[in-house]
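A reminder from the course coordinator: this example appears on the midterm review sheet, so study it carefully.

Given structure:
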């Protein structure tokens, strides 16, 4: 255990540690012996919070805290979460990135009946593979009201060497009762009636989608601006950061002044380490990076400010024993090294062989310009065509983004590989969320090895709610 990380994550880690009860009883349902069951009790409840800005507001929380308690287990453990819903509406929890059994996936009316107010639901699944994940509500706009938290699966045997580890959730907030969801509800119905031309189906007008809210605060682990806890290092430390983006509608470009970040994991999966000066992280993505603390001073790990202060956050990185009062932040330049998906190669641990796809499916992403809907192949969820696959097939999804916004596309229940024509398929990186940039075409492939109904959608919450989603269906055979 690391004292520095512990003290940094105090308000989550210590609470979480107090919550789970571990036992060494074999779990009958899983029929493997010696699996440790780690049980957590989550109550979803509205709570007055203060993110350090001096302004209180009512957030939607797990156990009264934002973000929710950290779940930290070892690979192969059984995670059991007893969810009690004390909210005024239905809820569910989705375990973002973990290829778990379909009934545990937490998508309302797709994988489960939503958990009604006053009800309890038990999630239970094996923690596999190791990596950095997120859990979050998948009901309506609850993600943007505070219902998310970190889920860390530690490897059975640690292969990395580091002295300190920090988990950093990068969050966008509307600092008012009910968060982002309340902000947009209060907004008058503006020019949203147009833009239905070209849709293949008709939509009831009372279901017009909502625009994104304007965020007025960016937080790290539930703390805003000057209240953000610093990373404190000793000279010579190797520091691992788990960067997690549970934001509803904000992506970040991060840079650490005075240091180079080395990317080691993408969405939990190991890659061959790649240095970068800037790291882009979209909604739903996770990157593990590390840096060598070899440049004593007071620095900032900061996000680039785009436009109206959007995505602005600054995390102090302080060397012990340095007295100066001003921190030095990164200066973003055009010519900075920004590693992207195509610069990464999978650290192939199993020597797996990737076969050519059995089936290719086009996914045209559009919307935005003259429409308040976001579409896949011109359709709006739940009217979108299913992605029909057969068990065992290798499936290629070819995305074409015909809109002017990036879409972080997320597939439930499976990892996919990002097709990179420059390298052999067994070196393609494994992820579960992929940013498709404006006017870009890019493809992924996955093996249909986890039967069920799996949601596939843009992880901009407001794009998803405005239609950019469909469901993977396995054919019955
Ligand atoms: Cu992180 Cu369907 O979501
Ligand atoms: Cu989108």
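Designed residues:
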């Amino acid at each position: 255990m690391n004292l520095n990380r512990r003290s940094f994550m105090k308000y989550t880690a210590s609470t979480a540690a107090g919550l789970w009860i571990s036992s060494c009883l074999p779990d009958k349902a899983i029929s493997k012996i010696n699996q440790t069951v780690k049980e957590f009790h989550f109550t979803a409840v509205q709570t007055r919070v203060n993110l350090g800005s001096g302004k209180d507001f009512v957030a939607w929380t797990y156990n009264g805290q934002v973000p929710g308690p950290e779940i930290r287990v070892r690979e192969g453990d059984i995670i059991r979460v007893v969810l009690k819903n004390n909210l005024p509406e239905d809820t569910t929890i989705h375990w973002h990135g973990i290829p778990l059994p379909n009934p545990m996936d937490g998508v309302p009316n797709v994988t489960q009946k939503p958990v009604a107010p006053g009800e309890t639901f038990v999630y239970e699944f094996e923690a596999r593979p190791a990596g950095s994940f997120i859990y979050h509500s998948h009901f309506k706009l609850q993600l943007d009201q505070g219902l998310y938290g970190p889920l860390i699966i530690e490897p059975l045997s640690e292969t990395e060497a580091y002295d300190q580890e920090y988990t950093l959730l990068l969050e966008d907030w509307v600092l008012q009762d009910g968060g982002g969801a309340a902000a947009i509800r209060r907004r008058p119905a503006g020019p949203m009636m147009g833009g239905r031309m070209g849709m293949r189906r008709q939509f009831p007008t009372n279901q017009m989608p909502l625009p994104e809210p304007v965020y007025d605060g960016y937080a790290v682990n539930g703390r805003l601006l000057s209240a953000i806890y610093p990373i404190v290092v000793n000279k010579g430390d190797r520091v691992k950061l788990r960067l997690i983006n549970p934001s509803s509608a904000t992506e970040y470009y991060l840079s650490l002044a005075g240091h180079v970040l080395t990317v080691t994991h993408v969405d939990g999966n190991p890659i061959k380490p790649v240095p970068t000066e800037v790291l882009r992280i979209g909604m739903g993505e996770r990157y593990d990076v590390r840096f060598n603390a070899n440049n004593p001073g007071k620095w900032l790990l900061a996000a680039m400010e785009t436009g109206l202060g959007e995505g602005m956050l600054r995390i102090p990185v302080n060397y012990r024993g340095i007295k100066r009062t001003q921190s030095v932040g990164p200066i973003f330049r055009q010519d900075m090294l920004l590693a992207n998906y195509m610069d990464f190669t999978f650290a192939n641990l199993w020597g797996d062989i990737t076969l050519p796809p059995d089936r290719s499916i086009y996914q045209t992403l559009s919307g935005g310009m003259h429409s308040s809907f976001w579409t896949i192949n011109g359709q709006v969820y739940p009217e979108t065509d299913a992605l029909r696959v057969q068990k065992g097939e290798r499936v290629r999804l070819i995305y074409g983004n015909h809109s002017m916004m990036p879409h972080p596309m997320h597939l439930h229940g499976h990892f996919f590989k990002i097709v990179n024509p420059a390298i052999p398929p067994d070196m393609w990186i494994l992820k579960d969320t992929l940013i498709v940039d404006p006017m870009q075409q890019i493809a992924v492939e996955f093996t249909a090895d986890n039967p069920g109904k799996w949601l596939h959608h843009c992880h901009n919450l407001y794009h998803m709610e405005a239609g950019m989603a469909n469901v993977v269906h396995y054919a019955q055979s």
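Confidence is low (pLDDT under 50) at residues 1-31, 188-206. Residues 374, 407, 458, 460, 463, 468 surround copper (II) ion (ligand 2) (CB under 6 Å).
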